[in-house]
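To make this tangible, we now present a fold written out as tokens:
***
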Amino acid sequence: MPYALSEIRAFSRMGHTVHSADTFAWAPGNHSVHASEHHETVSPRKDPDGYVSQLDMLVDMYRLDLVVPTFEEVFYLSRHGRTLGQHGAEIFAPAFETLCALHDKTSFARLASELGLHVATPKVCTTREQFEEAIAAHAHWFARAAFSRAGSGVCTNTGPLAEQSTPEDVQPTPDAPWIVQPFIEGEDLCSFSVVRHGKLVCHSTYRHPKELDNCGGIVFESLVDPRTLDAAQRIAEHMNYHGQMSLDFIDGDDGNLYLVECNPRPTAGVSVMPPSIFVPAVLGDFDGQAPHVAPAGLRRHIGAALLRDMVVHPGELWSDLEEMFSDAKDVYFDDDDPMPGLYQFLSLFHVLEHRRENRDQSNDKLSIGYLHDICWDGASIGHGPADAHVTPRQRFAAAG
């Protein structure tokens, strides 16, 4: 992930020894000069027990102190426990149940509403009939799978994503529900926070003025917005959160800031956060100070994605060129660390491998090809406590 590379560089530049690990040889972060060692692991989605065992071995072999997840591998690690290795290296992440409650869009919408945050009124659908009834209630609606990311699992009749799927494609079930909400007009905003034991330590807010196929930012610009900070603080304190947490919002045309979803992991907000506040926040080196907020006006972009955008969407040519030659720094290319810039192209082989194995899904979004082996959609994981065969949704239902 591009923000994993940002974290590798940040820890290294603040004087720490970094080991990187990913599931394929061409992962850009594994070729950074700031990673003193790089490792290739099995897929946590395909072999969760083998994945945890490999990281256990690496932690012990190299006497690592801290394990920092950067995507949905966090679920597989947290399911295992709070530490790895015989000497107990900390996994910088909250408990598995906390992750589930925030990642599941149905439970998160309820939580946000209970905390007094603005949420577009949700309707949870577990059957096809409920879904049809829910979308019929709104002239303009937006629907998402309870477990989804990167613009996948989305259906709407409004906006740029309206042509990408149809209501007929949606088949909710009790174990894989969908959530339907009224469509909110406004600008997307995002935040990233580092939280330690319920206390928010550092925070960044950003917008993405350019996106990849309307599914994810390729240009990022930081800003300061007290409303996103307040929302993150409320959630962090209520959940006694410990780890990295990202939130998506819509700054509504009606003047309200609507909370959309939580990604209990890092996102591009790391790339617009100075290492001098990110690294001490993760390591607990700030003592009793107010949250450290990334300054406004920091810009980063993904140059390769801008080039693709010029080809796929010729109407964006001039704005893409303007951004390419702006003063924004590239997320992958860096003067003292050029190889990740090359390997971002070679990592496309990982996408091609996914498409060869899943020919019926050859039209998947590009982002899904990158993420297929490290994502988690609520299935039982099988490593950890004796109730591992019980899905998170079944446990929540049993607990009321």
In short: Residues 36 and 397 are 45 Å apart (CA to CA). The chain is about 35% helix and 20% strand. The chain has three domains: 41-93+347-400, 121-183, 185-301. Residues 385-390, 394-400 have pLDDT under 50 and may be disordered.
